Amino acid sequence: MNIQFRRLAVSALVAAALLMMHSTLSIAAAPVVPGTGTWISYVGDDFEDPSWSFIHQFPKSSRENDERGRSPMGRSVNGRWKEGPERGQPDHLQVVPTPAGGLEGSQYSLMMRTLNSGVPGRRSFGVEQDDLIVNCLGRLRSSIPVSEIPSCVARVYLPPADQWEARSGPQFGFRTSASTVATERVSSGFFGSRSETTVEPYWPGMWIHFKSKTNRNVEKDSAFLTVRGDRRGRDFHALDIPEEKFGWWTMGMSYTGDGMVHYYAKPGVEDLTAADYITSQFPYTYRAQRFRTFFFDVCNKDDGRSWSTPFVIDDPRLYLVHSTRVAAIVKRQIESEERRELARRNKKQPKKSARVSKRPNVAQALDGLADPAR
């Protein structure tokens, strides 16, 4: 009787625990609108600084294609952007007047284009891409646990159709970098196997594809947005963008505590709302554990002649629902920068020579008085 009672009690406890876990995951998985919480202004950019510039370090990295990460990496002067090691940064990064219809008060935005994508010095004649990375890891000195509910938002300008690279296919990406811990079975000896746990990076995001009327069976230029990705990591169609909807778009992604990624987009520059929800996914079946950064891709045909479409981005931002830890990091970073700047200024100031008191003797004093010219 006691044994049966204990078994029933254990079963009830297990059922209650499973119910609580399911409820917790259900709450955690509720989509969070990107832009919710505290804006972390220490990362991201508004491009309003007239001295904004990027230091290119050619040849670019191409580790994804040929396992060569070429140091030193390119970076922006303000320290907010960097070249990624997998692929190089776009060849042309220029602050330009914000196109019509942009954010209120925005005077400047960033145009990005590339020509020499792929492996430096070699033409693939296929579609390649370059990346511009927001320097989250470098500035925050840390990745962000998804329990802090990170999200990122950017405004993206789709130019008139006649300015796009005349090629159907992917043209622009807005993506994130995340990591999780993956365990898999690997062979060990002739007949055995063992579990191996690794930190697995992956890159969920959204792509803008062009449908060019230069292609057969395409009567009118248009675009569409795809999401990366589903549980098998595949991109899938999310929404159509007709030519009359080209112009400014607001795009965003958020992560919740269960490791799910949530995708949002809308035409215009207004803040995202729940109505702009597209989908929620566990790409590759991964549950994200840490958010690392976000970045932008531009694609072109790597033939040495075809410039990528001149996309413009503005006001890329990072938000956190739970920001206490990162706010403390930012405070320390700013204080450290202020100390370094003060030390630099003090070093540049000329040292004052020490005063040595030399009291003249009587003869010297009288001599000086006797010759007024001295």
What is the count of structural domains? Answer: 1
Query: The biggest beta sheet, please?
Result: 9 strands, antiparallel
Instruction: Report the radius of gyration as a whole number of Å.
Output: 28 Å
| Total DSSP helices | 5
Structural class from helices and strands? alpha+beta
By DSSP, the count of extended strands is: 19
Beta-strand percentage range: 35-45%
How many angstroms does the end-to-end distance come to? 119 Å
CATH class: Mainly Beta
CATH fold-type name: Jelly Rolls
Mean pLDDT: 88
Poorly predicted parts: 1-28, 354-374
CA-based shape: globular
* Series of H and E elements: HEEHEEEEEHEEEEEEEEEEEEHH
Helix content: 10-25%
Q: What is the CATH architecture term?
A: Sandwich
Notes on the protein architecture:
This protein is α+β, with helices and mostly antiparallel strands. It has one domain: Jelly Rolls. 19% of the residues lie in helices and 36% in strands. The protein has helices at residues 2-28, 63-66, 136-140, 324-348, 362-370; strands spanning 38-39, 54-55, 75-76, 81-82, 92-97, 108-113, 127-134, 144-145, 150-157, 169-188, 192-202, 205-211, 222-228, 235-242, 248-255, 261-267, 277-281, 290-301, 311-320. Strands 4, 7, 8, 10, 11, 12, 13, 14 and 18 form a 9-stranded antiparallel β-sheet that branches. Strands 1, 5, 6, 9, 15, 16, 17 and 19 form an 8-stranded antiparallel β-sheet that branches. A hairpin with a 6-residue loop joins strand 13 and strand 14 (235-242). The protein is globular, with a radius of gyration of 28 Å. The protein starts with a helix and ends with a helix. Mean pLDDT is 88; it is low at 1-28 and 354-374.
